[in-house]
Write a structure and sequence with these properties.
The chain has a single domain, classed as Class I glutamine amidotransferase (GATase) domain (Rossmann fold, 3-Layer(aba) Sandwich), CATH 3.40.50. It has 5 helices and 11 strands; from the N terminus they run βαββαβαββββαβββα. It has helices at 16-25, 69-78, 88-95, 152-160, 210-222; strands at 4-9, 29-34, 45-48, 83-86, 102-104, 112-120, 136-143, 147-149, 164-168, 179-183, 189-192. It has a 9-stranded mixed β-sheet, sandwiched between helices.
Length: 228
C-alpha cells in the first residue's frame, strides 16, 4: 500500500506540483490540500512545500501559521505522523512552533539560487531514516531567508539530541552551525532549506534528493527509525 502524502498549498506556494510529482514518481500518492481546509483527508505524511506563502508579508511564514490547515498539521505531528517543511515550509514550521529557532536573511543579504552540497549528519528523522549517515548530497537551494538561527541553549539541545539532520559542506547563507535541516525531538517533524524535489530525476541534473523523499515515504509506512 503506497503512502498518502498531503502537500499543503498556501497562496504564493510554487513548489507543490514539483513535490507531488516527485512523491508519485517514487510510488507514493500525493494530494494537494488547500490552506483553508481543516483536515488532511487521512494522509500518512505532510509536506509543506516552498514558495512565498501569503507573499511572505510581515515575517516569512508568520501569516501562514494561522491558516486553518495548520491545526490539522500540528495534530498530525503530535500523533507522530511525518511532517516535512521545505524552504518556505521550514520557515512556516518554525513560526508555528513545530520546530525551534528561526530563519533570517542570508548573510550578505543576497538571494541564493544554486546547487549546494549537504552532509547527512543524523538518520533519526523522517527525512533521513533511509539515508546513510555521512553521505554528501548535491541539492538545489532557492532562498533569501535561509540563515538558520537560534539561542545557545536551543543549539546545545539540537546537538545533544542528534536533531541537526543535515549540514552544509560549504555554508552558503551564514546558517548557525552550518545547519541545513533540523528535526523535532521525536524525529517526525523536519525542516530543511534545500529542495530535494528538485533533485529527484536525472533530467533535473541530480537524483540525490531521492533518498530523502524515499525516507519520508518509508517513515509514513513504517515509522521513523530512532536509535535504540
Amino acid at each position: 500500500m503506497s503512502a498518502r502524502v498531503a502537500v499543503v498549498l498556501f497562496p504564493g506556494s510554487n513548489c507543490e506540483l514539483d513535490v507531488a510529482r516527485s512523491i508519485e514518481h517514487l510510488g507514493g500518492t500525493a494530494e494537494i490540500v488547500f490552506h483553508g481546509e481543516t483536515d488532511l483527508r487521512g494522509a500518512d505524511a505532510v509536506v509543506i512545500p516552498g514558495g512565498f506563502a501569503h507573499g511572505d508579508y510581515l515575517r516569512t511564514g508568520a501569516i501562514a501559521r494561522f491558516s486553518p490547515v495548520m491545526e490539522a498539521v500540528a495534530a498530525h505531528a503530535r500523533a507522530g505522523g511525518p511532517v516535512v517543511g521545505i524552504c518556505n515550509g521550514f520557515q512556516i514550521l518554525t513560526e508555528a512552533g513545530l520546530l525551534p529557532g528561526a530563519l533570517q536573511k542570508n548573510a550578505g543579504l543576497r538571494f541564493l539560487c544554486d546547487v549546494v552540497e549537504v552532509r547527512v549528519v543524523s538518520t533519526r528523522s523522517a527525512l533521513t531514516c533511509s539515508a546513510e549517515r555521512g553521505a554528501v548530497l548535491r541539492i538545489p537551494i532557492n532562498h533569501f531567508e535561509g540563515n538558520y538561527t537560534c539561542d545557545a541553549a536551543t543549539l546545545e539541545r539540537l546537538q545533544a539530541q542528534d536533531r541537526v539532520v543535515m549540514r552544509y559542506v560549504d555554508n552558503p547563507n551564514g546558517s548557525l552551525d552550518d545547519i541545513a535541516g533540523i528535526c523535532n525531538e521525536a524525529g517526525n517533524v523536519v525542516g530543511l532549506m534545500p529542495h530535494p524535489e528538485r533533485a529527484s530525476e536525472a533530467i533535473l541534473g541530480s537524483v540525490d534528493g531521492v533518498v530523502l523523499l524515499r525516507s519520508l515515504l518509508d517513515a509514513a509506512t513504517k515509522g521513523v527509525r530512532l536509535p535504540g
